[in-house]
TrEMBL record:
PANTHER family the record matches: SHORT-CHAIN DEHYDROGENASES/REDUCTASES FAMILY MEMBER
Pfam families: adh_short_C2
Family in the record: Belongs to the short-chain dehydrogenases/reductases (SDR) family.
Protein name: D-beta-hydroxybutyrate dehydrogenase
GO-annotated molecular function: oxidoreductase activity, acting on the CH-OH group of donors, NAD or NADP as acceptor
Length: 268
C-alpha cells in the first residue's frame, strides 16, 4: 500500500454518526459515503431526517439510513442501535457528533434546566453511545474507531458559554481515558475540536453573544475572526476530512488525541 493509498479509509466501513442529518454531522456522513462506507445516522429533528431521506431517495442512493432519536434519552439510544444492527449488521466507526450550543449568559443568571440539558446532550449522550458501541467495535475486522466532536472551547475558556465549554473539556477527558482503556482491544479513540465553523449554528451563536455584549452582529463577527490566526472560519468539509483521515490506514497510529481543526483560534 502506497502512502497515498493510506490516506483513504477502507471501503465498506460501517459508520454511525450521531446528530448526522444536518450541519457538520451530515457533511461527515456524506464524506464517508463518498469513501465507500455504509452509514447510519440519528438525529433529534424529524424535519432534518425527512429532508435527508428525501435527498437519498431522489439521488437513488439509499447509502445513509436513519433513526429519529433524542440522544440524551437512553431508550432512544437503544433504538438507534436496533437500527445499526438492522441496517449495518455491526459497527466499525462511531462518530459521536451530536451536541447543542447551550445557553449564553452569566453564570449567576443561567437557568438550571438549560445547564442540565447541555450536560445531557453534549456529555451524557457521548457515554450512552460509547457504552453501546464498544462491544460492536471490538468485533471490527481492522479495529474500531471512536471520534468524538469536542470543540476549541474544550481547550480554551469561554466566558458566557460555561455549560458548552465545560462539556467540551469533559469530552477530551473521556476520549483520553477510553483510548487507554480500549487500546488493547484495537479500538482507537480521538476527538476533533472544530473552531468557528461556517454555517447557521455559528451565526446563531454570534448573534446571541452580540446581544449579550450589546454589539452589532458585524462587530461581533469581526471580533471572532480577529481571534483566529488564519483570520477565517473553518469549513465543515475540513472537519469531515479529518474524520476520514483518522479512520484511514494513515491514521491507524493515532489515538488519545484531541485534534484542533480551527485555523488556530487563539482565545475565545
Amino acid at each position: 500500500m502506497t502512502v497515498l493509498q493510506m490516506l483513504k479509509p477502507h471501503a465498506g466501513l460501517r459508520v454511525l454518526v450521531t446528530g448526522g442529518a444536518s450541519g457538520i454531522g451530515l457533511v461527515i456522513a456524506r464524506a464517508f459515503v463518498d469513501a465507500g462506507s455504509r452509514v447510519h445516522v440519528c438525529d433529534s429533528s424529524q424535519q432534518a431526517i425527512d429532508a435527508l431521506n428525501e435527498a437519498e431517495q431522489s439521488a437513488e442512493m439509499n447509502a445513509i439510513t436513519t433513526t429519529l432519536a433524542d440522544v440524551s434519552e437512553r431508550a432512544a439510544v437503544d433504538r438507534v442501535f436496533d437500527g445499526v444492527d438492522a441496517q449495518l449488521g455491526g459497527l466499525d466507526v462511531l462518530i459521536n457528533n451530536a451536541g447543542i450550543a447551550g445557553p449564553t449568559g452569566g453564570i449567576d443568571e443561567m437557568n438550571t434546566d438549560d445547564w442540565e440539558q447541555t450536560i445531557d446532550v453534549n456529555l451524557n449522550a457521548q457515554f450512552y453511545f460509547a457504552r453501546r458501541a464498544v462491544p460492536l467495535l471490538r468485533q471490527a475486522r481492522d479495529g474500531g474507531s471512536i471520534i468524538a466532536l469536542s470543540s476549541v472551547a474544550g481547550r480554551l475558556g469561554y466566558a458566557y458559554r460555561t455549560p458548552y465549554s465545560a462539556t467540551k473539556w469533559a469530552v477530551v477527558g473521556l476520549i483520553k481515558s477510553l483510548a487507554i482503556e480500549l487500546g488493547p482491544d484495537n479500538i482507537r479513540v480521538n476527538a476533533i475540536q472544530p473552531g468557528i465553523v461556517k454555517g447557521p449554528r455559528i451565526e446563531r451563536v454570534i448573534a446571541a453573544r452580540a446581544q449579550q455584549l450589546g454589539l452589532s452582529y458585524e462587530q461581533m463577527e469581526k471580533e471572532y475572526l480577529a481571534k483566529i490566526s488564519l483570520r477565517r472560519m473553518t469549513t465543515p468539509e475540513e472537519v469531515a476530512a479529518t474524520a476520514l483521515f483518522l479512520c484511514s490506514p494513515g491514521g491507524s497510529g493515532i489515538s488519545g488525541q484531541a485534534i484542533s481543526v480551527c485555523g488556530n483560534v487563539e482565545v475565545l
